[in-house]
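Quick check before the chapter quiz. The format below is the same one you will see on the exam, so make sure you can read both the input and the output lines.
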Amino acid sequence: MRFVPIGRSACSSARVIAAVAMVAPAASIQAQTGALAGTVARDSVGHMVGGVEIRVPQLNRAATTNYLGEFGIAGMAPGRYVVTFRAVGFTPMTDTVEIKANAVTEREFVLAQLVVALDTVRTTTAGQRRLPPGLAGMEERRRSGQGGYFVTEGVLRDNDSRQMAGLLSARIPGVTQVFIGSAVYLASGRTVGDGGPVFRKKPAGSPNQCFVTVYIDGVRTWNGPWDGPSDREHGPPPDFGHMGVNEYGGIEYYPGGASLPMQFNATGTGCGTLLLWTRDR
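Here is the expected output.
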């Protein structure tokens, strides 16, 4: 099925493809090269971002989005490439694309705005209390401003009676609830399929969601992909509908590998990574 970016018309998509075709030399066509064309937005609604630098390190090639968030890179040999995105006010992002010969790979990318602190760490009358190692590491990353979204202990304690899935989907941009049966899972705003963040054929009838990788107290408890209840090879993601907010003292979410701390970067984390830190009682 032909991909048309969210919030953009087929005419707009055709304009990007035409621009790529105009800059592709005849020699590239003879060599059966492909091209990458797409748009960059700041949210899933489709508000486009101009001036984004898109770079393909393996080819030492780069492009910049126009005011409509569109870009194109031609003359790419078939294969899989790492693509980086940088723009002022947004968290740097890294993704992968697969280029096919004599074809234009169309993709839409969504950047996350730089972290905004949601709350401060609670203190006691004797001064700021000593945090356990996990929460101390989270607080250090939060203060560094290197990217990611954070929900601190104050916010969690104020929402002790809420369902975890509802709280996180409301406070973290790009995270959505996925209801399958009686369970509630968390996924990023991306989808899984040919040309998506997970390069594999999606079985018919399987969910088209990109379920987030989950760590609890620094230990990876779930990593995708998962094709739904019929997938007997891989277990399902954690059920956040039955997870209590009152068990946790801090939460971090990283939408892409560029901002994700190295110790939590693993194969398959292209759908976002959620770090949960249990509460110090």
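If your answer matched, good. The radius of gyration is 20 Å.
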